Amino acid sequence: STADHVCASARPVAAVCGARNTGKSTFARFLVNKLLCKFGQVAFLDTDLGQCEFTTPGVVSLLLLRSPLLGPPHTHMQHPIWYVLLFVMDVRVLLMCLFLLGFIDSNAAI
Question: What backbone torsions phi and psi does residue 105 show, to the nearest 5 degrees?
Answer without folding.
Answer: -65, -40
